[in-house]
Design brief:
The complex is a heterodimer of chains A (141) and B (167). Chain A has 141 residues and is an alpha/beta fold. Helices cover 47% and strands 18% of the residues of chain A. The relative contact order of chain A is 0.17. With 167 residues, chain B is α+β, with helices and mostly antiparallel strands. Helix content of chain B is 33%, strand content 26%. In chain B, strands 1, 2, 3, 4, 5, 6 and 7 form a seven-stranded antiparallel β-sheet that branches. Chain B is globular. Classes of the chains: A alpha/beta (141), B alpha+beta (167).
Chain lengths: 141, 167
């Protein structure tokens, strides 16, 4: 497990289904996250991301209107979001799909249905990524 | 006319079975099992919530209709929401559509691996009258030990060019 206190990290969960937001939120709480916010679509997510800095964003690939994939791509192009982990949540099990997401800047991906063990394993790896991203800033400062 | 999807029917049903069971049992904390034959009592319209998801590829269309026993959705809601929210129709319809979305997505991935290029629409709450043709393929699930119908997934396929299809 990575040396990071999950309670210090802010998470945003974006999915159009309430139940999926609930599932992800509960899995995050089980891992020690306490700062969790949710959004049900692109616009709501954009509003939240403008007003607050999140460390980890879980985003459903397909959202009504503009997709979660587009959201991830857009924010990934901006330097100030370099240290934000984007985790794509998808029903797709096609490897090509996942490679496409990772190439476009996703930090990781989680498949639906979301199972507690798979979720924990994936997020643990994402936490390692966050630690690595934060390290240079910590030593430089 | 030849139904282009005929060779895939049993495998589609397998994908439906595994994705429904994984979704309910591993993610939604329920105990759902597939039934080879329907349970004794059909889900009455008063106790049912219907959802639909559509896969489209030029001339081909596949519709998946989900009939949920409200009790199954209520139990699922109770596992995730406060007591005052679990009975809300919007909460139950959201669970129904979320399940339809996952199952539809898994079937789409399977068919596209077979060389198709299906796109999936957003799932929606369906009306009882739109439950699919009489000859639709049906997959039945139980959610309790009594073997009652908790969920029935019907699917129909249509080749819009030739008119062939259904199940």
């Amino acid at each position: 497990m990575s040396a990071i206190n999950c309670a210090e990290l802010a998470a945003l969960v974006i999915d159009d289904h309430m139940i999926i937001r609930q599932v992800l939120e509960q899995n995050l709480r089980d891992m020690g996250f306490t700062q969790i916010e949710t959004a049900s679509n692109y616009q709501e997510a954009q509003g939240k991301m403008k007003s607050k800095r999140y460390d980890i964003v879980f985003v459903d690939w397909i959202l009504p209107g503009k997709s979660g994939y587009s959201l991830m791509q857009e924010y990934r192009q901006e330097r100030e979001y370099d240290e934000v982990a984007f985790v794509m949540v998808t029903t797709e099990t096609d490897e090509r799909h996942m490679i496409e997401a990772l190439k476009a800047g996703a930090t990781s991906y989680i498949m639906k249905p979301v199972t507690p063990n798979a979720f924990k394993d994936k997020v643990a790896k994402v936490l390692e990524w966050i630690v690595k991203k934060k390290q240079p800033r910590a030593t430089a400062g | 006319m030849k139904d282009p999807m005929a060779p895939y029917r049993s495998r589609i049903s397998s994908v439906v079975v595994s994705s429904v069971i994984d979704t309910f049992n591993l993610m939604l904390r329920q105990n759902v099992t597939a039934m080879p034959v329907p349970g004794p009592a059909a889900i009455g319209p008063d106790m049912a919530v219907y959802a639909c998801v559509r896969l489209d590829q030029q001339d081909l269309r596949a519709d998946f209709y989900f009939s949920f026993d409200r009790t199954l959705l209520l139990l699922t809601a109770a596992a995730f929401y406060e007591k005052d929210r679990e009975a809300q129709p919007a909460i139950q319809e959201d669970i129904a559509c979320a399940v339809a979305n996952i199952v539809g997505g898994k079937v789409k991935t399977f068919l596209n691996h077979e060389g198709y290029h299906f796109e999936m629409g957003l799932p929606f709450v369906a009306k009882p009258g739109a439950l699919g043709a009489d000859d639709a393929v049906r997959v039945h699930f139980s959610f309790d030990k009594s073997g009652s119908n908790g969920l029935v997934v019907n699917y129909v396929m249509e080749d819009r060019k030739t008119g062939a299809g259904s199940a």
